[in-house]
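Let us practice reading a record.
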Amino acid sequence: MTDVLDRQMAYSDSVPPAPVSAKVTPEISMPARVILAVISATAGVMHFVMMPAHWGEWTVEGIGFAVAGWFGLLIALAVVIRPSRAVLTAGVLGNLVFIGLWVVSRISGFPMGPNNGHAETVGFVDLSAVALEAAFVIAALVLIARPGALRRGAEAFAIAGAVAVGVIALGTAALASPGARNHAARAHGASNAGAAGGEVHGHEGAAAMKAAASTDDKGLSLLSNGHHSEMVAEKPLTVEERALLSQQMAGSIEAARLFPTVAAIKAAGGWRAGPFSPGLGAHYIRTNGAAMNADGDVSIEDAMNPMAYIYDGTADDSRIAGFMYYSMSEKEPVGFAGSNDVWHFHTNTCLKRTPEGLDAPFGADGEVTTKLCESAGGFMMEQTQWMVHVWSVPGWESRDGLFSEVNPALSCSDGSYYQLPMKNWIDHPLNICKSAI
């Protein structure tokens, strides 16, 4: 018996142990797969939705968005069907590449293409997509290190469900936001508008005013109403303020694209308020909730909805030149980014009710008497709410600054700024330039 046992022990010692498992990593749980798949798929869908806007501006960029979209969907599918260390690693590396490209585009801009060297603005849509890509990277790295995570049955599925709902809600909110409309054009257009307007907040305004004062200004200085007397030179902005102001100006330019002519604003229900005035143009009102701006803080949506659209004339083909923003805020509005937007209000303004809406037959800055107002069929408004002009439309930038009181580019037909006496304005409701008669 001893000999038999000794032979069996010797045999067992000579046989190599069987391998524990041929798998590289344990199987990833279904809740974990759901979380990764929803994150990747949502980011992919967001890239697909934004692809046409970028493709229309630069084909290479559009192709990049298509690649990012397909990558997100394919990784989501692979994670659900055959999750493995290789799939997770590929997802991590791919998303890191996309995040890196986004960072470059927002810091220095791509060194090629139609917007080479131009840093794009950061918006809610692209920031949401990058956040999802970063979330995938973090979650995938956790599962590579601990593939057995989220294996607690009902609790794990509840966590996965909550995360999935949150991710889908974020993606939906981003794609439904105002920033998703014409995303590419807006991202690049903000900077282009700033460049055309003296870096959005150039410092040449004060120097130009001094130069004009020493020469014949053809009546330009007579237009000043004193509201901007404190604005001698524009104040520099922080990096954060510049970025936000660029987004706000991009919103205003989108408004200009929507209503490029008087015919367009009239078709949308807008009406003229007052005559064409040199330095101020012709104001056409289009009211909505955003245009009233109750809180005094100009959001991107608010920037897309000014109270008045300013045109270079009153004919149907007259072009958009600027905007007047309004606010119902009780105190002076926060307004646009930085401290250069000088908001003001008017007192003793003559208003007249018309079938289209309220008209301002004498503008807002003249010494209007009650008798003169009543002779025009109007009534006196003791005080208006807050307002500010914005000259962000490419080609119509004011040399006196983005938020200047008047815009010298809006001169009379002879290049002067001389107005008719106010008593004659009733007979000239469309244009009060001396050269117009």
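A brief commentary: The mean pLDDT is 82.
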